Fold each of these.
Amino acid sequence: MTLYKTWRFPNPPEPDLVQQLSQPLKLSPLITSILIRRGYTTINDIESFLTPQLSELNDPYLMRDMPKAVDLLKHSILSNKRIIILGDYDVDGITATAMMILFLKRCGCQNIDFFIPNRFEHGYGLTQASVEVLLGMKPDLVLTVDNGITATNEVQRLHEHGIETLITDHHLPYRDNVPAGVVLNPNRPDCDYPDKKISGCGVALKLLMAMRKEFRDCQYWSSQRPEPNLKSYLDLVALGTVADVVPLVNENRLLVYHGIKMMNTQPRFGIQALAQLKNVRTINSQTLAFQFAPLLNAAGRMRNASTGVELLLSSDLHNAARIVRSLDKVNSERRTRETQMLQIALEQAYALKHQRSLVVVSPEFHEGISGIVAARLVEHFYKPVFVFAMNGELYKGSARSIPELHIKNTLDQCHEYLEKYGGHAAAAGCTIHQSRFEDFTRKFEALCAQALTPPPQPQLQLDGTLTIEMIDWELIKQIELLQPFGAVNSSPIFSIPVPRQSYQIVKSKHVKWNLRKLEIMGWNLAKPFYDNPPKDLAVQLSINEFRGERKIQLVIQAFQ
């Protein structure tokens, strides 16, 4: 939090434009200015952003291979083929798996099952170890969700056994190679789908949209088999999309916007159980990111992600509550292991702080938690980070990067050292043999040094400056119009002067101001404040609900 070296204040937009947009939309000039700076410069743009309509979703047939996918899945359903859904062990994969099962059952499928690989036994997605399990399940069709785009050899092996495959994924392909068969992925090089950033769950939803229309056109739906309302699945899409930290703009924002509405009005039993455990009354994107997703992710990180699918498919609140309690225990174990790992990783990282990248490895590292620890190190050092866990002679690594370095493209240039890898611009994973680890580390550092010279300086983009007197419930109401918040569409950050009255120390590590109409909270800032007393605070405005009382809360993001 204290790593930000430079605060960037916005340039004010044209006053005439602010006035032209503010009055008809009944927005404050402050909120209008934020929207203009984020690229929404017309009344139609802003109305579409503030109240996105499901009718604005892109046609699923704009995605390459969609007609083939519909034909293949339709034939499998009508012929009562055995369909196995292969999901990823993160929240995006868990939610996509649950959604696909619910839809196929509504289609009348009886011969379906799912398989979520265990990261410790099978690795990520469609691997050779996963293929062995799938062969034992005797499918006619393997349908992947949120994985499979790099599984060229594995798909070929399934085909050799007479098993058809339907890949749905959103990750980047391996060196532009796409597996044989039917592949839905907006990021395949020959796909012109306009929104490249949709989540894995979003890609799966596109398939369901096309399937529902196909069955409608051929009059498959009936009173005995009613047409499913895909809107009822948007809570799952919202959860998977927010958890995967994809940009919450365009289709992602639209789906999350309506999915959160579904959660607050017609929550399924799994969502109800999560909300009860976390004592949440009103669900928003922050609830999904920081309270619900960690519990579901913990299953895949520490145990078996199938538990998460069972929760989302639960038809009984009592059973859902039981599963949530077990997930909460697993998540507590995850937090303990994370603290232990981070201490070891920080010691190694400080010894490497002169480098442009940080690559840490230890037999004490847990591969299910490596990604979280990598993200913590990026926050602390603002460098690309790899955290490797040892698994015999194979090291399994999770990477997180900074905006100035595309981590997947960087790994493309190190592919000769890697057994397997994949990912995005900001995050990736790989497996490497012990004998090639040092060569990889040197090559990775050399590439980072070349790309990051001079070293980039972390910056914090602010949305304006406020005084305490300017902050009231009307301002909060206007800021809430920008929800759901997430990647790219972040909650606005404002600079405020430090209040004159002294702050309190909470639990020996947090700082807090209790002012007359609001509170200011700084998590884990007691020591940084003591070492470097601040003059100005960078804060996000939110609502704190506790024991039935609502209060305006300013959460400190940085200080100087």
Note: The mean pLDDT is 95.
Amino acid sequence: MQIAMPGRGRVWSWVLIALLLMLLPMLAAGVHAAPPLINIGSEPLTAACRAATPAAGTRMGGTSSLAVGDLFSATLDASDSGGHFERISLTATGAPSAGAVLWDAGTILTGAPGRAPVPEPDARRLYTSIVQADGRSAGVPFAWPALSAAQQAMLDQAPPPHATSDGLGARRVAYLRGDRSDEGAIFRRRGSVLGDAINSTPVLVGPPAGAALDAGYLAFRERNKARPPMIYLGANDGMLHGFDAASGIERYAYLPDALMPALNRLPSPSYAHRAYVDGPAISGDVLIAGNWRTVLVSAMGGGAQGLFALDVTDPEALNEASALWEFTDRDDPMMGNLTTLPQIAKVHTSRGGDATSYRYFAVASSGLNNYASDGHSSRAGKGALFLLALDKPRDAPWKLNANYYRWTTPISDSAMANGLSAPALTFDRDGALSYAYAGDLQGNLWRFDFAGWPSVAVQALFTARDADGRRQPIAQRPMLAYATGGGYMVLFGTGMLFDRSDLAAGGFATQSFYGIHDSLSVPMDVVAGRRQLTERVLDASSADLFNLSGAAIAPGSKGWYVDFLRSSHTGERSIGSGTLLGGAVIFNSLLPGTDKCDASRSRTYVLNALSGLPEGLSAVSIDPAAPIVGLLQPAYSTLLSFVPQLTTRSAPDPTGQVMVTKDYAVANVSAGTVAVAGSIKVRLRSGRLSWREVANWRELHEAIK
């Protein structure tokens, strides 16, 4: 059927049709532009999951940290998602001592028949923030009368699938504070008031120990030299806890406002374990408004998209004013879930003579899923590096290029998941940020050059691909070593583990470890691919140990790489950063079980950071003499640590040089256990490192008068 139209109307109809035809491809691209989402698991992914209903009291692996000669270990009660956080005393060899558990913060906080909880629920110093849509915030006690109307409405709501107001908000707050009177009646029972900590990292904050020599910092160190050590830990009870490191007693806790919409789920009898504050954290001393302070910056992991900063200078004065800010995808849609470590850095904000000035920032990547359709998404799937000013006043809104800065990294393949991982930072002689290196899940290694601040050059130094050209994800923070002849050797492994499906054999692919040389040449000397690197080859000398071979680094080579042995079949990968020690790069890989629900194991590698071989470590010797290459460990170790054992000093040679030898036990820490893999001797020069005769010293002295 044909419809007659007036001439002018017919023209406009054809114009509209033409416009629609032009818009259709763009609309289709918009619909399909976002990459696939990453499922972020909240369970201990490397522990076994075969039991359908774990027995009461079953402990599952969490996070651990070695500090001050002791082990701090967090574990999960699998039956009710209760948490335990223990301080365990270690012997000189790195093994737990007799009667090793010094305290359990979960037990202290929960109490028991005849033993009251410490502190009592009403006496706990719990705080949150009321955050405005533009980022302005005000700290308040986490108590029902102090919360905003919006926060009360969220806590007054029954959890899904009901999602209706039930008037239980005040009782939910009491439950979250540790009140157990409603347990078993309207709320679920808990074996421990403390939540579990699966992916967060314990952070020990003691007296200031920075190297700054200005009078203000020296006075700050003197004032705080007797500051009692605190240990901070994010948990899946919605809180970042601050525990007295000596006693295990909770002194403070902060509940991010960003998690408020999900807090009503925690007391529910039908509660299913989920992430809350399970991201890594870091602390450092910074200058804020002319005063030195100690701050802690914590990511929220899978709990929410963003991070927050606290002033933890004085453990005795932690209160509602201790929260500096929160920064989430509501403030910038390119912010995602941060599962890797944020950093703290000093940045040159102006240069030249007496006008040189600095500012301190939290440095964080955009993380995962910033393109999720959550009302605050960046659909393109690009990555971003953020600098967030630690001196932002609480009553100031977030403003791009004023108190926060952002630089983006393009996406390479919109059909693949993307996300920028934590950066490794380098600093100039003044301690100010000079370069940042960060990898993404599409295998790109990005370099950010801060020489032209606030203009920052962002370039891809290298793209990790296997022998068949498939992209390899970089989900860890790189390590940096000084390279022979200048520049840096950027060291990192490939592979990822965000969800238990990543352990399924059907998804295994070749994964590798790389050492990429950045010469710092201008323009940047891009490493085009494997053909410019020197290959190292693994072969099995036994099931528990490998051999590693390869040619010497040839002139013109831009680094080295090694493929994990048969990793497309075994699933071996590198998901966590290692350690640099005495010229060696020391790291653990993850080795999945034969089924995705089997417990994972790991392998330990000690390689020359510059050559990628086990030989040539002039500063390191290994006992036993056999190199540690792929040494099989019985469990996956989330932490590779070095327990000091013995330090010896040689007599000075004729030039005054002294050799210091430090013995370390190489300890793998997992779920509260310590397995010693071997020992390492590190030899360092001390005293006068070199000397030369200056025959014309008097002439030179006179010339500079």
Note: The first strand starts at residue 59 and ends at 67.
Amino acid sequence: MTILSRLINRVLALPPAETYAVAVERNLQVPMRDGTVLLADRYAAHDNRHAPIIFLRSPYGRGHLFAALFARPFAERGFQVLIQSCRGTFGSGGTFDAFRHEHNDGLDTLAWMRQQPWFSGAFAMVGPSYLGYVQWAMAADAGDQLKALCLLITGANIRALVYPGESFGLDTALTWIQQVHHQEEPLWRTLLSMPQRVRAIQAAALHLPLHDADMLAAGAPVPFYRDWLAHDDPADPWWQPVNFQDTADTLTAPALLVGGWYDIFLPSQLADYARLRQAGQQPFLTIGPWAHTSPSIFVPLIRETLAWLRMQLLGDARLLRSAPVRLFVMGRNEWVDFPDWPPPGYAPQPWFLQSAYGLAPTPPTRAAAPDRYRYDPADPTPAVGGSSLSQNSGPQANNAVEARADVLVYTSATLEQDVEVIGPVSAELYFTSSLKYTDVFVRLCDVDPDGRSINISDGLVRLTPERLAIGTDGVWRVQVELWATAHCFKRGHRIRVQVAGGSHPRYARNPGSGEPLATATTLLAAEHAVYHDPAHQSAIMLPVKQ
């Protein structure tokens, strides 16, 4: 047992190990169908040669953090662990082309694994983020020897991650391509260059055209990033080979899903859960108060994974909770168990935008002029908190951005009792713009008694002439899907809704010109109006307990 292993076991508060005598076989060569050779490491106790196998495929390496979190602790507790480096990463042959080789390479590795003398006939797949996506890529064709899935902060539909709200997830894309491009450099170089890399992301986010912003972010062309931009049409068949959302209908292996209220994958993960339920499965779902890169996610993530694997592979249910859904209710700061998602007993309640920038659960009764703001992509409304891969994620104070002239803010009266909101959140706005190509960003915030406004949930929709729903009076009807949430607005607090034209660089700014995303360089400012009168009842829909 290593010193790091002892520290990990203590921090994670894991149950006692069965053995500390774990052997590691490194750089196992795994042939692919095209002749490429990928490398893998195997962890196993000396006397546990035929234990069930935990299989991970990662583009982020086989050592250090992933070995400490997912390999040795599980090998010490009754499993074998096989970690493989994806094509083109950390010694594996070929070229890394994000998401496009994971189906075939994963199945080829399974075929190889089944021929090994240590193969036990039962395996599970585990891992967060990209390591979760590769599970979706393989699971439908993995066979009945696949006994469990641990789909952690991930999703089956990658396009939904790249194009949230049909905009482009710019901050996440630039941050990730920079990370992947430089990840095999020595740690000391990474640490020393961190300030420079932050500046490079900032410069890349403001660069036009987006097609070659990779040169600033990563220092070199990144072909798959350029492919994402070139294939921006949701109907483009280019995305079909990397979209595995429909495979949920055929899965038989029990699935654990762990996500975060501020995670970049949350909408996809909840859609995956819904498809599994529709297919007759009962997946377990855990959602905590985390962003994708929150360090605090790892303790519950590893503990829940261990409990799930011991139940599904070893028949030991002692660590597994009884309720299939566990949610962290923010505001109350408590974990609450439910039988399903969305939780039964909660239904959408409209909170209507009012004149004088009010917000109330009753519709407006008097005629009122719309509220207007100007969005200028040359000075884009900045992102503050929310869901991205950068450090600018999670819950943050929004007061500074709310003071900008390009953000409308609607605030309720002080609450006389708690308002608990658990489930999907959406908004319906009556809206006009001087341009037919524009974005609408809506954010839900909690304002405490001191006036501090904290973002809870948000969403953006990119509008084009083809996506506009225009009434007979010329006013647009705009639907915005926000991130789902579980939050209690406490008595004495206020509920707030922001409306803006963007949230940059979390979302690529809308240039307003209708030019192709990859090559757009013309920036046009837009004049927007939000309506809130008896004929145009703009509202946010909050799922409250009935």
Note: Residues 298-314 form the longest helix (17 residues).
